[in-house]
Specification:
Radius of gyration: 33 Å
Shape: globular
Largest sheet: 8 strands, mixed
Bound molecules: nicotinamide-adenine-dinucleotide
Oligomer: single chain
Helix content: 40-55%
Low-confidence stretches: 676-681, 683-687, 697-715, 749-897, 910-916
Number of helices: 38
């Protein structure tokens, strides 16, 4: 007997019965070692003449949780579960599975390959593989329909939900439910079977039956499953396997099952679902906050504000059995809040999902109050008052006095600075953000906002509390909108640009819903209230004037179209009905708006809609990662999967960007206001890595060797970019010469045309300017006065430090390139781990923009301000700011001669500066 087998499973013989005990805590997952151990013990029992039968048993909590999914996509060691099942089938001695706790997935397949099954009353049995985008791949789809009714088997396998022991007994999946000591009962059960001489019952020898015509039955099953599981590939494959179980011999059916399993395991959808499974388990692993960090005890809670969020948050506490005091300013608001809570619970009772007594119990845990002092015994106080800094700070000042020492002071703010709120108290270490999502009692996401001074124990306690409240707590740093809403802003921005360019709200919504989102953006804005976004945009206009928005959403609001609440928004609504109906009025408004901003309507494809909206999310996510606001890409995915109706089979925005391929995301040259391919910034650092991998190897750690590796990668990219540029220049020069030769021949004017070109040093400048301009991001059509930057991957990748060799050779400006991404990044935040040289890049961008202006002016003085207007957008973000600083009036550029002179003057000044 091998040592490994001994460690992971036990073998003993009691009264002629072999007992094989699985011992692989916590869930007895069927990894390589456990499978090998069971195989070894089965053979031992079979070969021992003193043994009459065998019992397979786990712990009281878990028979087995199934396969170890970390072993997926890795080479499997022998024996696999199917081989183990074959050995079970081959046993000449009866084999009983004694199921305590749960038998799930491979665990149930192991039990199904035994000849009999007994279970404890609280045991759960299920095949949840579908939730990971796969199917039961070790005979589960073949055995289950052979032992229970086909319709029931299909329900179990396509829903993935486990059934209780009692139901399993009713269906025939379990032979007996036993009380007390499971092992004792199993041995007695087997002894009785042996005594009665009951034959072994191999499921593989049974026949799967279907009520009525199998063809019609499976056709209907397929139709139903396709409707219920849109976008998920596994359920349909499960139906196909079940059909094989009904129509083919066992071995053939199992072979088919294996093939379908192998196919599914490699689908993006399955990978996404597995990613989600692991991502959820990761969110509470915080570097520097180990699992054994001492936590504060939360026995009582309090919520300030009984509005939309306060009421829902109070319900979360009551649902978890934590007594909660709800404090309001006025009796009227308090009554309204409490009545909302009551009617919410009553609705659940009416749907049969909650017992009346349970509702009473929960209501009794909620204590309404008008006095802050009534919260003085609360271990945590969550404020859900109006979203205004002064209101929140004022409240926190009061809490300073009323809250007991050591109480956690949490804010439910969705946008405000948690650190500023914390400053209002003398105990900032106790302050934390708990951003619940609406409806708070339903949505699983809880963004836990860690302030600068939040104590580690406060963070650990809040994370633990999040789990107690059955939420998915995801840690976010402090920034406007935190993870979810900050990304959403870019998504909103992009969705509105799509309208400007030719799409309709219904088209955008339909495309994204078809792709898998629970709701399209415009239906969502109408539901949330367009006035909320309007307020944010007004605030943004002051705080971040450089942020570009389509003004169309404002136009909608100016007309009082706030969405569902006013019966009109991006759609119209009929009284008492929330169904969005496309409104011709909006279409007319859109057309006149497009005319006003000078954008020609074009056909926008569904693919473009999805790509632009999704890449906008992923790009902002990359910023968020880079700034350390989120700890890992999978956390960002969890935010979207649990708080924003993102389809689980797409794995979240970051997983999606990875699965499309960062190179493709970067290369996507989308028309219109395309997304900045920010993912490039990350890619530069760790070339060839996915976003997920990147964050596993935290790139915030610039002291590590990874930083240097990343730096080397950057250098290499720069070298390559330089090489590309040379080739490109060579080709362009060749083409120009050829054109010139042709022109000379045609016009018969020899080389005279050169007179029209600048000569000598100016000619060199001209050519340099030409190159500079070509390096610029392409300028899309002018759009509402804002730049339409279509960034080329090369623009992102190549941030090239000045080459000393060129300086020596006097070709300073010839091959310098512009890293717009780097320049922008630098402007927005000084970040750790930056490896590029963005200030230089920024200057170069401005430089290149100016050159473009001058080049155009030199060539065609008659065009005057035209080219400038085209170049202006690019210069606005970078060059314009610098021009302002230098006190130069932009209008000067409109004067061709003055522009030319200015160009020369500045160029000389720059050269002098460098020489200096
Ligand atoms: P709401 O207007 O529905 O409710 C706020 C309640 O707070 C009101 O009933 C008001 O009477 C009460 N209140 C105000 N000042 C108070 C004070 N000093 N003491 C006691 N009660 C006071 O607002 P809401 O939608 O529930 O939002 C509350 C907070 O939650 C805001 O910070 C908001 O940004 C945030 N939030 C809202 C949502 C959402 O979808 N509504 C989602 C996430 C977070």
């Amino acid at each position: 007997m091998s040592e490994a087998a001994q460690r992971i499973a036990d073998y003993s013989v009691r009264d002629g019965i072999a007992v094989i005990t699985l011992n692989n805590p916590p869930v007895n997952s069927l990894g390589n070692a456990l499978r090998a151990a069971i195989m070894e013990y089965l053979k031992k029992a079979e070969g021992d003449p003193a043994v009459k039968g065998a019992v397979l048993i786990g712990s009281a909590k878990a028979f087995s949780g199934g396969a170890d999914i970390r072993e997926f996509n890795k080479p499997r060691e022998k024996p696999d579960l199917a081989e183990l099942n074959d050995q079970q089938d081959a046993m000449t001695k009866p084999l009983v599975a004694a199921i305590g706790g749960f038998a799930l997935g491979g665990g149930l397949e192991l039990a199904l390959a035994c000849h009999f099954r007994i279970a404890l009353p609280k045991s759960q049995l299920g095949l949840p593989e579908v939730k990971l985008g796969i199917l039961p791949g070790s005979g589960g789809t073949q055995r289950l329909p052979r032992i229970i009714a086909m319709a029931e088997a299909l329900r179990m396998m396509t829903s993935g939900n486990p059934i209780a022991a009692e139901r399993a007994k009713l269906l025939g999946l379990v032979d007996e439910i036993v009380e007390g000591d499971l092992l004792e009962a199993a041995v007695l059960f087997l002894a009785r079977l042996l005594k009665e001489g009951r034959p072994r019952r191999r499921i593989r020898d049974m026949q799967a039956k279907v009520d009525g015509d199998p063809k019609a039955f499976f056709a209907q099953a397929r139709e139903q499953v396709a409707r219920e599981w849109k976008g998920y590939p596994a359920p349909l494959e499960i139906v196909a396997c079940a059909q094989a179980a009904a129509t083919r011999p066992f071995d053939e059916g199992r072979k088919f099952e294996r093939e379908r399993f192998a196919h599914l395991v490699n689908t993006t959808e399955s990978k996404a679902l597995r990613h989600m499974f692991f991502a959820e388990r990761q969110t509470t692993r915080i570097p520097g906050v180990p699992e054994d960090t001492p936590v504060r005890e939360i026995r009582k809670a309090a919520v300030v504000g009984a509005g939309t969020m306060g009421g829902g948050i109070a319900m979360c506490f009551a649902n978890a059995g934590i007594p909660v005091t709800v404090v309001e300013m006025k009796q009227e608001a308090l009554d309204k809040g409490l009545s909302n809570i009551r009617s919410n619970y009553a609705g659940t009772v009416a749907k049969g999902r909650l017992k009346q007594e349970e509702m009473q119990r929960r209501m009794s845990l909620i204590t309404p109050s008008l006095k802050l002092e009534d919260m003085s015994d609360a271990d945590i106080i969550v404020e859900a008052v109006f979203e205004r800094m002064d209101v929140k700070q004022d409240l926190f000042k009061k809490l300073e006095v009323t809250a007991k020492p050591g109480a956690i002071l949490a804010t439910n703010t969705s946008t405000l600075d948690v650190d500023l709120i914390a400053e209002a108290t003398q105990r900032p270490q106790d302050v934390i953000g708990t951003h619940f999502f609406s409806p708070a009692n339903v949505m699983r996401l809880l963004e836990v906002v860690r302030g600068k001074q939040t104590g580690k124990d406060v963070l650990a306690t809040t994370l633990k509390l999040g789990k107690t409240l059955k939420k998915v707590p995801v840690v976010s740093g402090v920034c406007d909108g935190f993870i979810g809403n900050r990304m959403l802003e870019k998504y909103v921005q992009q969705s509105l640009f799509l309208l400007d360019e030719g799409a309709t709200p219904a088209q955008v919504d339909a495309a994204l819903q078809k792709w898998g989102l629970a709701m399209g953006p415009f239906a969502m804005y109408d539901m949330a209230g367009n006035d909320i976004g309007w307020e944010i945009r007004k605030r943004r206009a002051k705080e971040r004037p450089e942020m570009v928005y389509s003004k169309f959403a404002d136009r909608i609001c100016e007309l009082g179209r706030f969405g569902q609440k006013t019966g009109k928004g991006f759609y119209r609504y009929e009284a008492g009905n929330r169904k969005p109906i496309p409104d011709p009025e909006v279409e007319t408004l859109l057309q006149s708006y497009r005319k006003e901003i000078g954008v020609e309507t074009r056909q926008v494809s569904d693919e473009e809609i999805v790509a632009r909206c999704m890449y906008a999310l992923a790009n902002e996510g990359a910023y968020i990662l880079e700034e350390g606001i989120a700890l890992r890409a999978s956390d960002i995915d969890m935010v979207y999967l649990t708080g924003y109706g993102f389809p689980p089979y797409r794995g979240g925005p970051m997983f999606h960007a990875d699965s499309v391929g960062l190179d493709k995301v970067l290369a996507a040259r989308l028309p219109g206001r395309a997304v900045e391919a920010r993912a490039a910034a990350c890619e530069i650092r760790q070339r060839g890595k996915t976003l997920q991998r990147l964050t596993e190897e935290s790139f915030h750690d610039r002291s590590s060797h990874r930083f240097h590796r990343a730096h080397a990668a950057l250098q290499e990219l720069a070298r390559r970019a330089q090489h590309d540029a040379r080739r490109e220049d060579g080709r362009a020069r060749g083409a120009r010469r050829a054109r010139a030769r042709q022109g000379r021949r045609r016009r018969g004017r020899g080389r005279d045309h050169r007179l029209r070109q600048p000569r000598g040093r100016h000619r060199l400048e001209h050519r340099a300017a030409d190159r500079g301009a070509r390096r610029l991001p392409e300028l899309g059509p002018r759009h509402d006065g804002e730049p339409l930057l279509l960034l080329r991957p090369a623009d992102h990748r190549a941030c090239q430090p000045e080459n000393p060799g060129w300086r020596r050779r006097g070709i300073r400006r010839r091959r310098r390139r512009v890293d717009l991404a780097g320049a922008e990044r630098d402007e927005q935040a000084p970040l750790p781990g930056r490896v590029a040289a963005p200030p230089q890049a920024r200057e170069l961008l401005a430089d290149a923009a100016d050159r473009r202006v001058c080049r155009e002016a030199l060539r065609d003085p008659a065009r005057g301000a035209g080219p400038l207007r085209r170049a202006e957008p690019a210069a606005r973000g970078q060059g314009a700011r610098r021009r302002q600083v230098q006190g130069r009036d932009r209008a000067d550029h409109h004067q061709d001669e003055a522009g030319r002179q200015e160009y020369r003057r500045r160029d000389d000044a720059r050269s002098d500066g460098r020489r200096g």
